[in-house]
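Class, carefully examine what follows:
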Amino acid sequence: MADNPHKNDVSFIKALAELLRENDLTELRVKREYGEDDSLDVRVSREKHVVAQATAAPTPAPAPAPAAQPAPEPVNDDPASQPGAVTSPMVGTVYMAPEPGAANFVSTGDTVSEGQTLLIVEAMKTMNHIPAPRAGKVKRILIEDGAPVEFGAPLMIIE
């Protein structure tokens, strides 16, 4: 970065931290380009602490285990790993329609063409139209209008 630091960088970083807290996110990364040899690369993250509490209560002696059965095949219900999953390219807030009260861009069962707008992700007051990566049918919509999303979060599945 140049010799003169930008005055707004501190307030920009504070705004990122606030966005992180308000949307219950764990990490946010942004790069600002000021000029050819002048940029700011910021990563703001926080650690979520999970507290597990175990209570020890007297228990009777365990019963004999039944005969071993083969474990069932694991079912992969992770929508992000499904073929045709459309994931969020950024952290932000999802909007399913172009404006409040308007019809949604797409609904479950709709046929979409490649490049057609599926939804909007608002990030840093910028409305980013998310296009369909390929033509197909909208099988599932995995998010709700106005919901916060993280980078890589599955948004919908197109078959």
